[in-house]
Amino acid sequence: MRGTVKLPGSKSISNRILLLAALAGGDTRIHDVLDADDTRRMLDALRLLGVEIANEAGGVLRVRGAGGAFAVKRAELFLGNAGTAFRPLTAALAFCDGDYRLAGVPRMHERPIGDLVDALRSLGARIDYDGVEGYPPLHIKPGAANGGDVVSVRGNVSSQYLTALLLALPLLGRRMTVDIVGELISKPYIEITLNALQRFGVHVEREGWSRFIVPPGRYRSPGQIFVEGDASAASYFLAAGAISGLKGGGPVRVDGVGRSSIQGDVRFADALQAMGAAVDMGDNWISVGAGADAVRSGKLKAIDADFNHIPDAAMTIAVAALFADGPCTLRNIGSWRVKETDRIAAMAAELRKLGAQVETTADSLRVTPPAQLKPATIDTYDDHRMAMCFSLAALGGVAVRINDPGCVAKTFPQYFDVFRGIAQQ
Q1: Closest CA to 298 of 396, 154, 405
Q2: Between 20 and 30 A from 242 (CA), which of 232, 298, 318, 359?
């Protein structure tokens, strides 16, 4: 692998910006929105809620904001498996005084949402479960949100619960405090949320990572806004540069994220550097090859690290571990269990097919690479990141067959075309 990749827009930023633009006063012109299943689910939902969204030249979306609560007061929304759409929309619609039903694919109905619903109910929201208690689908009913000015939510299941509350609370028009119960995971994703809120005129104060104070006021459109490239998607190509560099390939450069990025997943480059990769970075680009020691040994360095801050990109480290000089341990990744699939179980099963020894706990994964990789057929569990990260195993000189490669449409429909584009045949 060698070359340069222009990244698609970030899913996390795209869906946050789309919702904020829809709730703000005025028109917002959004550049570089990701075009993939998750963002299409958000766009479809917003249109059903009465938001006017127009396509302009150069791939720009113009969103005419509702200036507060959505005008449409009755809707049935299908949100696929898009957590970045389902959770924030649940919170926003809870404060819109309407009758809404939210559903998704079967896997979305297995992903917990009880902590968010409990928090919203404590503020007076009327939300019923249409299936299993604690899980979607949901029925939101009209009702005044009059439950006071302090709300608590657990922080150790999904950071999307806090993101959803922070995005929705300005709709209440009063100063609100959010208290976090337990440890807050995936803190960099909250940084993305806080940055997006500020761009729309709401500055949230925080006391460490345990309390957030949301001021009264309405969202104001910034006029136009640009979406960064997807730092999680960057991880596959950066890892490809490090792995290929072991045998004379690389470097691989990604354009769209870099030193000035607001996404925590750019710190994936630090993990690669700890494994012996050579990393170079500018404000809006990152380039990775293999370091001199790694080239001499033909192996990356084994690491033992906490990946709570970059759980999505950490999946790529688990596959890069196949090319390490010893066992690699990924710790504090319990949130993998409630993602698109149980990622700890799925990663263990597929890594073993390639010959690795894998040990798991409730929140960790230990990968011991084999002396020689085995050819394998990889199941993807309808999880886009499984398909993308396991494509890297082919750099070990074995045939890797990816079942259901179309699942990458969730966030990166062109992934395999881009992957092929930097492969040196």
Answers
A1: 396
A2: 359
Determine the structural domain holding residue 142 and report its residue range. 9-212
Instruction: Specify whether 95 is located in the same domain as 151.
Output: yes
Q: Which of 272, 239, 275 is nearest to 254 (CA)?
A: 239
Catalytic residue flag (residue 312): yes
Residue 62 is assigned to a structural domain of this protein = yes
Type of residue found at 148: G
pLDDT digits (tens, 9 = 90+) for 282-309: 999 999 999 999 999 999 999 999 999 9
Shared-domain flag, residues 201 and 235: no
Task: Give the model confidence (pLDDT) of 177-232 as tens digits.
Answer: 999 999 999 999 999 999 999 999 999 999 999 999 999 889 999 999 999 999 99
* Cβ neighbours of 56 (radius 10 Å): 11
Active site residue: 312, 342, 379, 382, which one? Answer: 312
- Spatial CB neighbours of 342, under 8 Å, sequence gap ≥ 6: 336
How high is the pLDDT of residue 145? 66
Give the integer Cα–Cα distance in Å for 59 and 41: 18
38 is written with which tokens?
């998750």
Residue 29's SS3 state is strand
Q: Residue range 117-131: average pLDDT?
A: 96
What is the CATH classification number for the domain harbouring 265?
Answer: 3.65.10.10
Spatial contact of 403 and 391, defined as CB atoms under 8 Å apart? no
User: In the prediction, which pLDDT does 389 show?
Assistant: 98
**Bridge partners (DSSP) listed for residue 328:** 367
Number of domains present in the structure of the chain: 2
Q: Amino acid letter at 116?
A: L
User: Once rounded to an integer, what is the mean pLDDT over residues 87-115?
Assistant: 97
**E strand or H helix at 288:** strand 285-290
For residues 124 and 72, membership in a common domain is answered with yes
Q: What is the pTM of this model?
A: 0.93
